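Hallway conversation turned thread

IA: we were arguing at lunch whether anyone had actually written out CPNE8 protein end to end. Turns out nobody had. So, for the record, here is the sequence (532 residues) and right after it the structure tokens. Reply here if something looks off.
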Amino acid sequence: RNLLDRDTFSKSDPICVLYTQAIGNKEWREFGRTEVIDNTLNPDFVRKFIMDYFFEERENLRFDFYDVDSKSPNLSKHDFLGQMFCTLGEIVGSQGSRLEKSIVGIPGKKCGTVIVTAEELGCCRDSVLMQFCANKLDKKDFFGKSDPFLVFHRSNEDGSFTICHKTEVVKNTLNPVWQAFKISVRALCNGDYDRTIKVEVYDWDRDGSHDFIGEFTTSYRELSRGQSQFNVYEVINPKKKGKKKKYVNSGTVTLLSFLIETEVSFLDYIKGGTQINFTVAIDFTASNGNPSQPTSLHYMNPYQLNAYGMALRAVGEIIQDYDSDKMFPALGFGARLPPDGRVSHEFALNGNPQNPYCHGIDGVMEAYYRSLKCVQLYGPTNFAPVINHVARYAASVKDGSQYFVLLIITDGVISDMAQTKESIVNASKLPMSIIIVGVGPAEFDAMEELDGDVVRISSRGRFAERDIVQFVPFRDYIDRSGNHVLSMARLAKDVLAEIPEQFLSYMRVRGIKPSPAPPPYTPPIHVLQTQI
């Protein structure tokens, strides 16, 4: 909208060029170009860019605009109209996945704005619940009837077949009814509704030499008609058919039911307006070492971030794209507070217990450094109070409109293990996840136990309803050269990768569906007033 006009006799002929940034060397690479739209300062580009999206990765984007003056593909031959920088997460995290941002890059000039919308390609999110039965199958066993099961194959581009599902075996019957099963449309036919699906019927044998009863073919489109005369299939054994003139079939298989379920995705909720609230809790216990000493994990180095600062920035920069107000509560635990030196396990880093919110990750960093100067590192290391602090907020909005992520950064020596387990088991019923980043050289066995990936966490005989804790040791991400950049992206990736699934597991258990997205943006149409 409102691009600069660079042509003397007519309006600009704009094109948009998208660049992405490589993770390692931060070099910008051209990803693609839109078409050129002649003679307009308000182009609606048609050509779309299809990109991979990962919640846990920060994908930097740059949109450059040019006024095209000739057929040359070389961009330096055309007039630059400005550029816009953002991340893919910023677009996806905006209301209705629609981001409007100013175009910059030409000093002293207003370059207009760009509107970017994103939508998730949904072709392969469906899955199907199907049930089959069979009648009068051939008897294959000497002593009893057959023990039939079905094997489903999808066909590949080259005509070969890939197995995609096996039913259970139904013992000793020629008229089996198999249990309903669920399979993704992608696995069943690769999203191609007319592709052949081959189904084989076998008689199970204990020694693994299952006898072939017969086969039939169908397609997703045929199956989708549901239970009808079209979905009764003759099971044919080609060998028998060749030998016996009177051969009719080896039985029939009937489709009993066919239900399509669309799997909702993390992005459906984000697009519908669910907010992710991010809270930080920092370990201020004495085991971290004196902040004025270079050996301390809290060392205030004027030239580079300490471990706490790095972990905070790596995780915070990605998650802030999904939080519209960018206000983050930042808490500390395990310190003695001025003026009276009382020990606190949930204090506001900005010194304001009524309003612990900091603006953006920069605001959190500022409050962290301020706190280090005025509190005294002490102990013990209690996690339960900060977990309960976030849980109180999470308990007040269970309708799916908000989800809470608590980042605890700690040196890992925990004093209130039993209380923390109790808090986590209680929190597993709430819309929240906990990320623990362990800094320093300690043994993190207790943290691994809280992570619950190996053994589901329990307290007083009650097990956590879902896995909500993700633990990572910070030392795994610092390379020896001290070049932290590559490892920061990996840290964020490993820490955040489980969040979308934890988020979805809460919504599923509670039966919460995503809100409809706001209507897509349509450019205003100028109506000509006519008098009748």
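OS: looked through it. The radius of gyration is 30 Å.
IA: good, adding that to the notes. Residues 360-374 form the longest helix (15 residues).
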